[in-house]
Amino acid sequence: MKVTLSILFTALLSIFIIACSNKKNDISNNNEIKINKNIETIYVNNIENDNLNLKEHLKEELKKQNNKQIAVKKEKTDATIRTEILSSNMNYEKFYKPTNTIRCLNYKIENNARKCIEYGNVKIPCKKKEFELKTKIDLISKEEKVIFSKIYEQKFSKDICKNIKYSFDPTYYLPNNSKELIQKYNTKLAKKIAKDSINDINLNIL
Fold first, then answer.
1. How many angstroms separate the CA atoms of 72 and 26, rounded?
2. Torsion, CA 20, CA 26, CA 32, CA 34, rounded to 10
3. How far is it, in rounded angstroms, from Cα 85 to Cα 48?
4. Is there a contact between 59 and 43 (Cβ–Cβ < 8 Å)?
């Protein structure tokens, strides 16, 4: 009798554990479906002072995501991407680059003739342009809750050096087309930021 009751109790306990396990799996699966269906349409807000096409780059990256649509109207969306351009700059720096060419660096006059008293490597004047773009990208739910927020920064530098024959003419002028240069190079940085941000959002949220 005791053996029969023990077997019956074990069988009932097993059925209860299996039922709870199945119920737990059902809940987990339902939550996953709910999360996946929670954000189906995304609206990309206008960006202030956006001369880098950052909004268009974000929309292009969103189109690459499966089963996600770009909302035309803000009122008919599950979430909104808000972007702020924190800085878009070009930094300019002058420096001298050593070469393998040996020349007289210093001399003195003796008997109406120049006599070299110091030899060394010739240094040529160079300029470095560094382009920097920093943005803040938020994903906001239709309930106005922040789902995702991150600051992105991209940099690009370019060095230009003069020919060695200009080693004694180290004059460099600041570029007079700095606005055009910033727009040209930072537009490329904006494209990188758009790709990185949408990948992060897709990995963590979508």
1. 35
2. -120
3. 7
4. no
* pTM, 2 dp: 0.68
- One-letter amino acid at 110 equals E
* Confidence at residue 58, expressed as pLDDT on a 0 to 100 scale: 95
**CA dist., res. 44 & res. 198, Å (int):** 12
What are the residue ranges of helices labelled H in the chain?
Answer: 2-38, 54-63, 178-204
Concatenating the DSSP letter of every residue in 2-54 gives HHHHHHHHHHHHHHHHHHHHHHHHHHHHHHHHHHHHH--EEEE---TT--S-H
Does residue 13 surpass a pLDDT of 70? Answer: no
CA separation, residue 165 to residues 101, 107, 116, 119, 194 (Å): 11, 19, 19, 17, 43
Q: What is the pLDDT of residue 99?
A: 85
Q: Please, are residues 199 and 161 in contact by the beta-carbon 8 Å criterion?
A: no
* Structure token pair of residue 56: 């268009």
Strand 41-44 and strand 69-70: the pairing is parallel
d(CA 12, CA 7): 9
pLDDT greater at residue 45 or residue 75: 45
- Rounded-to-integer distance, Cα 191 and Cα 65, Å: 16
Q: Looking at 58-62, 75-79, 127-131, 182-186, which range is the least confident one?
A: 75-79
The count of residues in the chain is 206
